[in-house]
User: Fold this.
Amino acid sequence: MSTSVPPGWPAQVHPPGTERFEDTAMAWLLDLVPPEYRRYGVLRRYPPVLARMARHHVDASVEAAREGFRTARVDLGAVVPPHGIEAVLEAYRREGARLVALQRAVGLVESALRSRTGPAAAGGGPVPG
Assistant:
């Protein structure tokens, strides 16, 4: 049982191969997605599905932050003074860095969940309705 994790691994998630890995990964991933995602049993039944959806959600957040940064001066220039624009850009820089680190962490957890499960491990066959 390995307890080493790669750089960027989220502190809230136990290492792959440990007893609580899947439970802590699912709890962490559920905290990243919109609360409505908790309604869908398939996300709890198949952790790699939850990880995939979390990755798409975080990817979209990264893209939104990048677009906001690129367009802030033009979109806000008429309503926010120059020092305010600089503060907005700094907020985007910080949030962008946080989101990119989160994006990497989600990818690591997703990869670990995918390598831990497969059709045979997940019961195979069609997903019950």
Notes: The chain has one domain: 21-116. The two ends are 35 Å apart (CA to CA).
